Amino acid sequence: MTDTELQLRAQEGAAAQAPARPKKPARTRQVNPVLEQLFELYPKMFGAHFLPLKLGVFQDLLALHPDVFKRDELKVALGLHARSTRYLESVASLYPRHDLQAVPVEPVSPEHVHHAILEVFRRRQARSNQDLRPFVRVQLMAAIEASGLSREDYALRVQQQDNASDALLDDAFAELGKQAAKREALLRAFEASAKTVAEFAEMYGMDPTEVSRILERGAHLDPVA
Questions:
Q1: Confidence band (pLDDT; 50, 70, 90) for 71?
Q2: 0.70 exceeded by the pTM?
Q3: CA angle (25, 30, 34) in 5-degree steps
């Protein structure tokens, strides 16, 4: 588990322990009838847990169910589904795209993950009295690391369009830079010590497994420069 993933788990735990805001009585909303049909046909994809859909799923559904779905109605329903917060959360969580049988088929592109993270953040922040920027920073860090792109290539892919988004991305890159610097410093200290991993870990009061993981990552160039 990477440093970023550990931070993300910690942030999620803190969020779960935070006092819940009083909930307003739920308003009954009419569910799109096509989404109800999709749930009946593919509960693993449109049920309790949403998963990112494979590209071309619209055409797949029309081909598989020509007598069930009308093109325009299906297009509207899938648009509602893809813009829902639950769906965006699944994309932001770095789940891969899945086919209609819930089989992973391909990763979601870095730009789609990035924009999903920011959109979920905007929606949550609008309803919260807490500053959620630390949480979104960790999510962005995980997305950047998962992309394997350099800072320049990542920025080019996501194409930021406002100062607030720019600031969040800069903050994520700055933290990744700090982590990379710490790993490099630990690597240099280890190389200079001429000790085994176990001896080095004991000397600094660290877990040997954690030291091995940090040293392994420190030996590779991080995509944050």
A1: very high
A2: yes
A3: 145
